[in-house]
Protein 1
Amino acid sequence: MIILLILLICILIFFALFSYIIHRHIFNFQTIFLGIWCVILILYSFQLSYLLEDLSPKTLSYMMLVFLSFVMGYFYIFTLNLPSYKRVRSLKPNFSKIKIRINEIFLDISFYLIVIITIIQGIYSGGYPIIWLALGDHKTYFDFGIPTFNGLFLSFLLFYSMLLYIELVKNPRKKYILYFIGVILIPIIIISRQVLITLIIQLTIIHHLYIRRINFSRLLPVIILVIILFGVVGNFRTGLDNFLYISQYKGEQMNYFLSGFYWAYIYLTMQLAHINNLITYIDFDYGYGKFMFESFLPTVFLDFFYSNVTYSKPVFLVHPNFTVSSYMTSPFLDFGILGLCFYTFIIGALSCYVYHNLRLETTAKNFMIYVVLLQIIMMSFFVDFLLYLPVSFQFCWILVLKKYYQ
């Protein structure tokens, strides 16, 4: 097992570095995808929790096939684009060439529309999740909003937030500040963790690559402080002793103020435990797309296409309190290892296409598509955002509404 794990990590490091060398840019999709999963595997190897069992030879072998599928998909498109690379000196995109001119009327009308839709959805749902939580109501985020329409609305909110942030930095008028506060408050009001995380990551990418480079070394003290506060808040809500019991911490004691690092560790590694459990121990019938598309297609379509599928998703979580399981589990449940490898091959090919399309045509539209896909790749260890309607439908808004920002 140790030899296979070391071999897998070495393969990831090799292709991540190779991709960085040929692109001369760390924010290429292959380096980011393989680099993040390499870090997750290294962290997992410390096994600070009894829930983090040794990765089985079957799991490691499957993961090796999966990551190589991404590499094959990426370099398949790369080789097709080789003739066009003769026209450019470097494969590193020149973000300074991007010109984004945002229509002010579009920003104003869109914000008022977002507010009106949020009010209408609140009336339709009989309130908002943050109020339900405060009152101890049984309803949750999943009970909020008009089905399917809410996903489209949230995707527009994320798309709009990118344009608004760019304009706010260029033109910090009071109304844009108020718009931005409103946009940030909406995912908080509806308690949508995934939408809020997506929003923050996408705006961070835009700021770093397009507006002003972020010196992450100077931010290290802030990051450490955020992790500490994350642990303190978690301890306040759950209780440190209870969390250590639930997560089955291997140690004997944990410093209250340093527990945030363990909280972060568990959230970064637990999905590997779920994947290992699913691949190694769980027997199940294939869903043939049901589980991949349940967060993307409207319920009426799912009911129509899978009316004969009566079984539910098998229980493969090593603990019900930890539910994140990366992008891998749904395609594996639907089509097995071959389906997962094919899906990962498609992601790799799409990643190369988007990156090199940006390099060859450095336009606002291509940059926005790049930002959304980069966020999806960065969070692949957490969830499959490519088939999550509020995130992936941003691609449609970017294409359809491009006349309002370029």
Note: Residues 65 and 341 are 7 Å apart (CA to CA).
Protein 2
Amino acid sequence: MPTPHPTRGVEHCKCGDPIRKAIDPSTGERLYVNAAVNPAGPLACFTDDTGTLRCRTLGGDQPNPASFEWRAMRHFYTCSLPPNQRPRPAGRRRARRHPGLQQVLFGQPGGRR
């Protein structure tokens, strides 16, 4: 069994459970995982050289975690809060338009004629 993962980066959900932010390297998706090791978890997690927690889904051609990975469960499935109050990590946000900062396009009200 691999050595326990470091506890650096552990936060607490509103439900009180310890969680960690992770990134799925294949999709770039950000997700929360339970900080505790779960032997039945479907994710294999490891901390890379920069200290970022990365997770991959077990199955297919790699059904078992490597020696440096530990099994984890997505917190979304174990959170005791109602679904509309569960934490979701912030992904990419849309750029906000500030009308005072952008030039008015040709042909629009207030633009050149």
Note: The radius of gyration is 20 Å.
Protein 3
Amino acid sequence: MKINNKKMYTFSFILFILTLSIIWVMNTNILNQSKQVSKAVENPIHKYNFIYSHPFKKNSYLISTDNGNDFKETKLNFSDIFSIQNSQLEEKNLLLFPTHENKYYQLDDSGKLNVHNVNDPLTFYFKNKLLSIQSLNTTVDNNLLKVIDNEYNKKYSIELPSYLDKSTFNKDYIIVITNKINDITSLLHVINRKSGKLQKSVELTSPAVDLIFYNNQILITTEKSLSIISLNDFKVREVKYPLQEIMVDKIAIHKDKIFISYGNLVDGSANLLLLNSKYKVLDDIPLNVPYSASKFRNNKFYVLSQFELDEDEKFGGQLNEVDLSTLEIEKTINLPKKEIKVQDFEVFN
């Protein structure tokens, strides 16, 4: 059968125009959403902030409170937000990250919403006055790490294998974790800030979850062990967890003690594993609350419990605040119930 090229070109042109129109409408809607959100609620950000979102629902909600009793709700006209974090540049600014879009949102305390478009989906992002670290998921096999380092007058990009998942830094190094897709190992990449070059890549035997600098070493919580990497020779030492049926999450240092948060896979409860500076286990503290997500902030540990949307359930979730000095829960916040689940939180001290 002979193809009519003229008809084919006409159809392609119409399809091209339709595609441009759809993109324009979507961008216009996003801008309109920004205006609507900015008018919706003044001062939407408080000490405790929670994002409720779902990929297939039209709206997300920011629920915030200072005392855990009175809540303010900000309706956001976009969906698929599963991560929020505080901006390091401005006081009381929140960054909201969608899972499947090439953008992120910045909400300030006046209610103004800014949309920041990026070339590819972000896997993580950090920015303060001296350093910007941005990871873009360019293909299935590659991530592009973009760094602007004002302290050393460096600006560079490094292509690394997917999936760049976590990052941290100190005055000498930027550390990036690659969790290989469909693999059971991770790679730790060490970037020298003074040269702006990749200095070393170290293979880990288990997928990495979180990382922190401590005593000229890098501590990495992996699924199976605490990995300790010396910054002198980059050799890896592993300390096995006392339990294996656990879902390890965050790591923090407080008064020269190491805290590792985890969820018990048997009953779903939150726990804190406490180690000394020689990586010996001192205590395993059950918190007796369900584990969904957690964060360490300013000598406190916060654990979020996501509740199912059952008719009999009164609340949408719960946040418990633990003092790392006393290891006691000193505050519990019961969250309002919505038609979608709470996904993440951020705390301003």
Note: Residues 5-40 form the longest helix (36 residues).
Protein 4
Amino acid sequence: MGDEVDAMSADTIYVEVSGTNCIIGGRHGVVTSVHYSPIDHSVDGAFVGWDDGGTGYVTTGCHAGTERLGGHWTHREVQSVRDIDRDEFDVLSGLAAMRSHLGWRQ
């Protein structure tokens, strides 16, 4: 797991669908999934599969630009990005809670 890095304010990420390319802080990857806030169902992050290996989690902020699709903003500003491991992925995606709820044992 890497340290959290503040992204440059110019970086934005397309958050309407998965499978889109992104470049964040000069690093290229593909958005594999968009994460929604459980409180207001707005986009608050995204998982990114990096071309150079590994998975990252991008924390998103306010909408960026003027593009809208179906009433939703298509781009969000990147607040921070960090590399994550499998355990952190499970926590962020809700898989760890689901396993616990279903009685998962090691």
Note: The beta strands are 5-6, 12-14, 21-24, 27-36, 43-50, 55-63, 68-69, 72-73, 75-84.
